[in-house]
Each structure stands twice: as structure tokens, then as C-alpha cells.
Amino acid sequence: MLAIHGWTPDHRLMTGCLEPVFADRPGYRRLYPDLPGMGASPGDGVGSSDDVLAAVEEFIDTRLSGESFLLVGESYGGYLSRAIAHRRPEQVLGLALICPVGIEAVRERRTLPDRRVVREDPAATAGLDQRDVADYLDMAVVRTPETARRFRDEIVSGLRVADLRTLARVAARGWELTTRPETGVFDRPSVVLTGRQDHVTGYADVYRLLEHYPRATFAILDAAGHNLQIEQPDLFGRLIGDWLDRVEGETAH
User: Fold this and answer.
1) Among 82, 137, 160, 191, which is least packed, fewest CB within 10 Å?
2) Per the domain annotation, does 47 fall within a domain?
């Protein structure tokens, strides 16, 4: 399984939500790369999303060398994963998208719900560094000590080490790939998870992709924003588990 994190954080965003799922599923080799300019990956020579995608495909060719694999992408990583699945339909056995960028890569063109907090615990930010409180409050729909802890450990940890110059170069190009990710139909077991209160990528634009994924479960989770894997961990785990069951059932024959 190859897991691709979103914009600015690093692999810890993905290990935090996926490793608990695989604790009871032996036999999977999991790969958690850092995208260029994020985590431990240098961003030299990267100036566009096309460059980022090329780096991911080079990683696939080097580390997987023609092997089949499952693909999981979150947010911007979901945008890249859509392109990889359509470029490599015989290699990608299943696709999971978590709060993916939908039909509109440029933020100003996205259809987004209003910001809304569904649950608020006054003690939520007690364990956060004051530098991180504003970022957490801007993103959190369910504000509790547990979501704040996971935000600190799984997301802020990556934000602290990001190469902001590389990210600025890519962002200046609007994040868009030269060619839209969908080139036809991806006809493998898939799951697409969106947050009803996600004001970053939203949910409406994702549903405009429905016809390209005839084997996909599409779900809008209430009480979930852009970090739905943190805010709805049990439901997240069950839906990812169902996806894995479907992939396993298909590849067993």
C-alpha cells in the first residue's frame, strides 16, 4: 500500500490514521513517502504539481518496480492519487481518497461549505503550543483534547519541517496539473471520504467525479472537517476496512 499525504504535512499524517487499521491486517507492506519539499524529502528542482507527480511516479517505479499496489491519498495527495490511478489502472488494485481535492484544484474556484464547529471542549487546546492554537482552531470541527493531540502529533509535526520555498513555487502555479487527473474510468474498488463541514476541499466538487469511479463508495461524514480521519476515527476505520475487504475479495479470485 502506498499512502500519499496532503499539502505541507508529511508521512505522519498518513501513518497516524492508517497504521491502526493495519494492526489487525497482517501481510501488507506499507510505504509512506514524503512529498518533495515536505518531511525529509528535498524540493530541489520542483516548481509545479507536474514535478511533484513525476517524483511520486519515479518513487513508484523505483520502490515497486511493476508490482501491483493499493493507493491512498489525502487532500492534495488525493489529487495526485487520482492521476496515478488513471495512469496506472493495471497496477493500482484499489484507491482510497480522504478529503481529496475535487474537480477544482485552485482553492478560489472550489465549492465550499461555511466554517462551522460541531463540538467544542474548552479544554481542547490546553496541550497545544501557543504557536499551533490558531491553526488548530481554523481547521477543527470537533474540538477536543484528543483531536488536538492528534493534530499536534500527526500534522503539526510535518508543518514544522516543510520547505516553504518549494511550497511557494508550486502554489504560485495554482496547484493544477497540466492534464486533469481523470483520463477515463477507474474500475477498481475505491472509497472516497469527504467531510460535511470541510471548508478546505469541500465535498460538492468531489461528487462531480462520480462517473469516473463506478466501483467507489462515496461518503460524506457529518461532524467532520478537513481532518475527518482525526474527528471521525471509528467511522474512518470501518469505511477503510470495508474498502480493504472489497479489494481482498476481488484479488483472492
Assistant:
1) 160
2) yes
